Amino acid sequence: MNESYWIASSKHNELKSLDKDINVDTLIVGGGIVGITTAYLLAKQGIKVTLIDANKIGYGSSGRNTGKVTSQHGIIYSKISQKYGDYKAKLYYGGNEEAINLIEDIINENNIKCNFKRVDAYILAQNENYLEELKEEYDTCKKLGIDCEYYETLDLPIDSKGAIKFKNQGEFNPKKYLDSLLKKCIELGVKVYENTAGVNFRKGDICTIKTNQEKVICAKNVVIASHVPWYDGKNFYFAKEKGDRSYLIAAKLEKDIMPGIFLGVEDKGITLRTCEEDGRKLLIFGGGDHKVGQCKNEGEIYDKLKEYAKEKFNVKDFKYQWSAQDYMSYDNVPYIGNINKKEKNVYVATGFSKWGMTGGTLSAMIISKLIIKKESKYEDLFNPSRKGSYLTTDFYKENLNMTLNYISGKLKYGSDHFPIQEGTSEIVVLEDNKRYGAYRHFDGTLYIVDITCPHLGCELTFNSAEKTWDCPCHASRYDYKGNILEGPTVKPLKRYGEGKNHIKINL
Ligand SMILES: Cc1cc2nc3c(=O)[nH]c(=O)nc-3n(C[C@H](O)[C@H](O)[C@H](O)COP(=O)(O)OP(=O)(O)OC[C@H]3O[C@@H](n4cnc5c(N)ncnc54)[C@H](O)[C@@H]3O)c2cc1C
């Protein structure tokens, strides 16, 4: 699998997994930016915190993104303002600005070396068809009092037919930031366990969580910080947000470009920034967005990104390539707060629409306030049970798409031969008349797994760029051996000979 520049250039200190039953005050499930920052804020207030992660801390999306730290999240302020009014749009901006300031404060207080820098952020239209929307966004931003400017063009080697600048935003190395913050959490007394997945949840005044190693954790408060919630309190997050994957490359930059962080506003728009570390300058460039499990040619995406970067930025030395996914809410506002209306001691943060560095930090601020003070000024805006958050045309389109993928997956015919070429896959039908996913690894080994997703039973598709089995319905992902890479699933795939996957309706 491809690895992100941030992860590849950091050193991981492995932590042990949980090997006994425990009682805790606050349990955080998931060690990305949400989990680690929440642990930090609570521990600083003297709360006893335990954090578990299914894999390695910081290896989820938080270690694989673009490292932009900004309240400029594409064309959103006009949309939020239209749906929820100016007050809430302004509150969204204020919350994200507070998050940038908190990140900067944490870095300064703890002397964290993560190349944090204040820079201006730009959204730009490469295609004239988006200019009207861009100008409307600018007018809304001005009306809300956001410190921004409009440009007819930018001094970049790519097309820009119009752009909006937000001043004084930020960029950093997200993995270096999280590694240092985790260290600080441990110094503050947070107990952290890796390779420890929550797989079963029983609600109550004291919640009971069972781990993948059959250990039991009893907790007064639980924060579900697993990106997409693996326990969702029947609030149907897997339907209220959709999983989107995007691809990034890092190349040695020969010639400087104008300072800033940049995002194209088009569907499948580009993203770019530079990064200067260890005496070298890299261009980080990305795009190729698609719904998880629904791309026929992932393998070509990296090639296309590299071609474009070569042509526009004259780069040739490509050092890293990686991809990541995030969950997109339908109203551009994440879900942060109580997991549902009833379970007042269970919290969730998800649906960051690719802006979880600020959104995840803001989640930690809100959830830690809710745990300690039982209130937050942001509670209503981000309330996971808010009315109508998902009732949009896109929601109906996506859920129809989900159903069609479920059905078409079942109708797909399997082949009668295994893949021959290394690095390729085939869906095959074996003697038991069941379809399996077969993958031929580069060392010639054949891996055969049951590809009916244990989450809700959709048929998985093969991601040829990452060599993974991805769910086109709810965005769970597995490696070619069947191990879980991303949720909402909590069960790995069975290998041929181990029987069928148990389809757990995890509602
Ligand atoms: C290509 C791309 C670029 C992006 N760029 C930016 C950017 O520049 N700026 C920005 O603000 N945002 C960006 N984002 C979004 C951002 O990366 C995410 O929103 C953010 O990282 C989400 O953080 P998280 O803590 O919720 O999830 P994660 O970082 O994914 O952490 C979740 C953790 O939970 C663990 N977990 C999952 N299930 C379980 C379980 N059952 N039990 C225990 N642990 C579990 C996982 O192992 C993982 O470590 C980008 C996203 C993508 C896809």
TrEMBL record:
GO terms for cellular component: cytoplasm; membrane. It comes from Romboutsia lituseburensis DSM 797. Residues 412-496 form the Rieske domain. The keyword Iron-sulfur applies. This is Glycine/D-amino acid oxidase. Pfam families: DAO, Rieske. The keyword Nucleotide-binding does not apply. GO terms for molecular function: 2 iron, 2 sulfur cluster binding; metal ion binding; monooxygenase activity; oxidoreductase activity, acting on paired donors, with incorporation or reduction of molecular oxygen. PROSITE patterns: RIESKE (PS51296). Transmembrane segments: none annotated. InterPro entries: FAD-dep_OxRdtase, FAD/NAD-bd_sf, Rieske_2Fe-2S, Rieske_2Fe-2S_sf, Rieske_Fe-S_prot_C. Keywords: 2Fe-2S, Disulfide bond, Iron, Iron-sulfur, Metal-binding.
